[in-house]
Structure prediction request, 106 residues.
Amino acid sequence: MLEINSKSGLYPLYAAYSIYRARLDEEWCKHNAIAPDRAKALWEQTLKENIFVVCKTPMAVAITKRTLCGFRTASAREISSISFPASPIPSKRSSAISATPKGSGD
Prediction:
């Protein structure tokens, strides 16, 4: 799953949890038990293999990593920030002036 322009990581968290639950169910069907270490390994495997996130700012990267990994050092290496070139935003006044037809104030 690829999310572009993540800010909080909630959608990748939802996607990761859905994949993780499917893997847990599969594991439960095979062994009828799941060790805590195995459950943690499945979560880290899900993040590593299935979740790819692109953020605009370093702060969004930090928030997304914290959302997905908590305070652990799980492999969230596929979360990165990229910089977009700033596009000039026209001021409201200049847009309003250019949008006003000539002679309307007469």
In short: Residues 20 and 46 are 6 Å apart (CA to CA). Residues 10-31 form the longest helix (22 residues).
